Amino acid sequence: MKKIIIYISLVLLLNSIAVFSQQAVKLHGICTDTSLVEMSYRESSPFRWSEFNPDQFIQIPIKNTEADILYKTFVSKELLIQPPGYSQSQRIYVTPGDSVLFKIVPTGKKQQFSLQFFGKNAAHYNYSFFMRENALTKEKPRFKKGDDITIYKSKLSAWVRRKVDTLACYAKTYPISDQFLRYAKADILNEYIVDLYSPLERKLVLMKDIPSSYLSDAIIEKNSESHYYKIALAYKNIYYYISDPLLSFDIIKQHIKQSFTGDDLAYLWGAMIGYYASKQQLEYRSGLLQAIKETPQYIQNSEYLGYILRSEEYYTVINQPFPEDVLTKTFVRSFDSDKKISLKELLSLYEDKVLYLDFWASWCSPCRYDIELSHPAKQYLSEKNVAWIYISKDDDVKAWLKASKQDSVTSNQYLLLDQKNSSLLKYLKINYIPRYVILNAQHKVLESTAPRPNSGYGDTPSSVHFDQLKNSINKATSVATITYY
């Protein structure tokens, strides 16, 4: 890890020297609603969301009904801008040197706002909102469990053709550059590939049940500015390159090394490391850590390097006990007593037991939804002699106590103290809840992001969570932990 950190530091130094050649993108906005106080934006990450790659929005204040965004970039790229209120993010395509005005306008829905841009290149900025609001985008096919996947593909293909035609009409109506047109078309075609993989991603169909011709036209449209270009690369060459990628790390690694060069190789190398780190398996530990050591041969991009460093930090907690400072500097209080105890003392109460840690809070609706649907999981864990430990992130003690009673989760119930400085949250990279962690009988971290306990409804992704949790618990209770060097 030290070599990677030193290497990243050198790259960051070189990048800081190059900052002077960046051009600013200036966005100035106005808003007639004096109740709105801030908005936000973020860069569009090429890597999938994870506990070590959370969305990071930059907050922009609205002062005297005006807001200013100053963003520096070397190249044209995509940003996500979040209007105030309960509004959806709007994808915008920025070009170095742009200076654009925008208005924050209500959509007609309660607390919903959008942005309208004016001036040079305004059509580049308004495009995504136009496509989203166009009736065409509301017709996007959705695959449901049990559907004929060939019919789904046919509908999806027709939808993509209509979307390409809509882009062509937009290009005739509004002044856009050829560069933007290439980007927008590539993004549509690459999103189509990602959508083809969607039934697999949502675990609604198995790879073995897909016809051989299903992915025959999954030809990626190369365009470095297209957000979906990189995502499609990862889907096709990592996540679904082979029927069981978790058993095929070396095959995928060699495929990437032999088939790609330049930024595509660098991106896929990072995406590969992040993917395997997120799956938290020990079987490929030595291969993954070796790939991390090889990173400087293929990557100079500071964003990619930072992602790999976070991936390594996340993965290397697996099969490890909590560090002593985490054990002694993390404090909780139990539901039954206001006595303050350390994490070390807490774990000693469950000696030689597999633990399922449930990080939740009274104000977290998904957390309480999981609790509501967790009865089958509770029974299963009880049969396996696994202790279910609740750790609340509430600031309001009364709210925590009240919710614990309401949801009938008063046993093994603890409140995390001094959350802002919590070494436990930092160590496990808990940025969002609900979050679940499995500790083996020796209280080593077996899964730092374990499956959720709810049984779900119908063909929703959550319907598979309980099955995944049973697999994880079986692994924790029936297989001895193996140390890989």
How is this structure best described in words?
Residues 16-21, 457-462 and 480-485 have low confidence and may be disordered. The longest helix has 25 residues, at 149-173. This protein folds into 4 domains: 23-122, Immunoglobulin-like (Sandwich); 134-240, no CATH class; 243-316, no CATH class; 324-478, Glutaredoxin (3-Layer(aba) Sandwich). It is an alpha+beta fold and 485 residues long. The protein has helices spanning 2-18, 122-133, 149-173, 178-201, 227-239, 249-259, 262-279, 285-294, 302-315, 324-329, 343-348, 365-372, 375-383, 397-406, 423-428, 465-478; strands spanning 23-31, 38-43, 58-61, 66-73, 77-82, 90-94, 99-106, 113-118, 331-334, 340-342, 355-360, 387-392, 413-416, 435-439, 445-447. The strands form 3 sheets. It has a 7-stranded mixed beta sheet. The protein has a 4-stranded mixed beta sheet with strand order 4-1-7-8. The radius of gyration is 24 Å and the shape is globular. The chain contains 16 helices and 15 strands.
